Automatic annotation (TrEMBL):
Belongs to the UPF0166 family. It holds the Pfam family DUF190. Transmembrane segments: none annotated. InterPro entries: N-reg_PII-like_a/b (IPR011322), N-reg_PII/ATP_PRibTrfase_C (IPR015867), UPF0166 (IPR003793). This is DUF190 domain-containing protein.
Amino acid sequence: MNKEITIARVYSLEGHDQLNHILDILRDEEGILGATVTRGIAGFGVSKEIHTSTLLNLSLELPLIIEFYDETDKVLRAIEKLKQRLELKHIISWPATAHIDQA
């Protein structure tokens, strides 16, 4: 069975103490189907400052990517709540198809 969904990706930094708040909102308040957090080994944003995990330039602000998915309405509601509560500025989303096996 196929189901139309929306995937969203939130970009943050490790040292900003937002991860647990984001996950709590997605899981407990919005009931989002699933989320995954990935820690980047390097990255930069608007400031162009490079954050990296190399020993010579060890940053406590490594990039974090929080990706989540659900029905479009739920994802858009969650994005608005995240933006309002945590002042997140880097969020993208796109339509996708979930290929669900009915076991």
